[in-house]
Amino acid sequence: MDLYARLNILGGHSVRLPRGDLDDAIRLDNDPISRARSWAEQGADIIHVVDLDAAAHRDYQNRALIDELVKAMPIPVQVAGGIRTPSEAARLIEAGAYRVVMGTAAIEDQNMVWDLCRAHPGKIVVSLDVRPDEEVAIRGWAMNSGRYLEEVLLEMSDAGVTSFLIAEAGRDALLEPPNLDILATALSLVDDEVISSGGVRHLNDLRDVIATTAGGKRAGGVIVGREVTHGRFTLDEAKAVLAETPRPASDDAKTRATVAVDPAATDAAERYQLMATELDHAAAHARGAAQRILEGETARGHTHGLTATGHLRKSQQMMDELAVILADQSAS
Fold it and tell me: Which residues have C-beta within 8 Å of that of residue 227, sequence separation ≥ 6?
């Protein structure tokens, strides 16, 4: 599990947001580059930079500074905040950003996400702020999207998103515990990396996040920031907790299962895994169809139903292709 250190930039300065409100931003002593270097020296695996001016006001005054920061860091830098267009995402990636994070723009323009994932594989991350009922909030928690965690995750996963940041909309990370049910749901729905980005109150919360699993899978990373600057714990202590975490038993089982297996069998196993994923997606959309129709959202329900049909057809196509391969192998 990677330890991400959050760095907020507002007006060219490092800031802390006590309650997530820009009006209450507290300017910190370090300039952003010095602060990022400090995070790296303390043991962070990845710097998570949030451009608050770009996110809140579409003001890109910090971009040159972020470009400089990316080049100066000895560890990867992931950039978030105000990335709304393919050109801006491409520019940041070309400037050396490890990955770029999209939020509201990804929810509102899914076609753009598909195009970006094809153009920049492994570089596009989607951040989801999730309410307790699993509706996804947008525009800095100010609006409801009308879309829910399951459908968004599955659609974005299909698009090729490499990772998801999961946070709880409206939660005060220093006072309220993380919603582990939301994290577990996300882990159960996609095979892609899921990162806990809502923050933790203390090391026991961090242990709870690490211990949260679904099907043997746990979060691929956790983002910390205010917890450290408030003195709740240090990055060294957080790293020590991460080091306590044993590998999931399922990982060991997978390793043992693939030892000394011939290439043809491995290929068949991978194809069956892909089929299983498609069928999982079909089942999730079928459940979504039933739920939306029962809630009176008939049109949205049928949209889910059509998506489920697409996944079933893709799974059937995979089965037909595998049947041909197996028949050829038997004949030879």
Answer: 173, 174, 199, 200, 201, 202, 233
For the segment 227-246, what is each residue's pLDDT rounded down to a tens digit? 887 789 999 999 999 988 65
* Cα–Cα distance measured from residue 50 to residue 74, given in angstroms and rounded to the nearest whole number: 18
Distance of CA 84 to the CA centre of its chain: 17
Contact 122, 70 (CB under 8 A): no
| DSSP H helical ranges for the chain | 32-42, 52-57, 63-72, 86-94, 104-108, 110-119, 149-159, 180-189, 203-211, 226-229, 235-244, 249-257, 263-294, 298-331
Strand partners, 213: 218
Supply the pTM of this predicted model.
0.73
Residue 306 buriedness (CB in 10 A; 0-12 / 13-18 / 19+)? exposed
Tell me the two tokens of residue 188. Answer: 């159960």
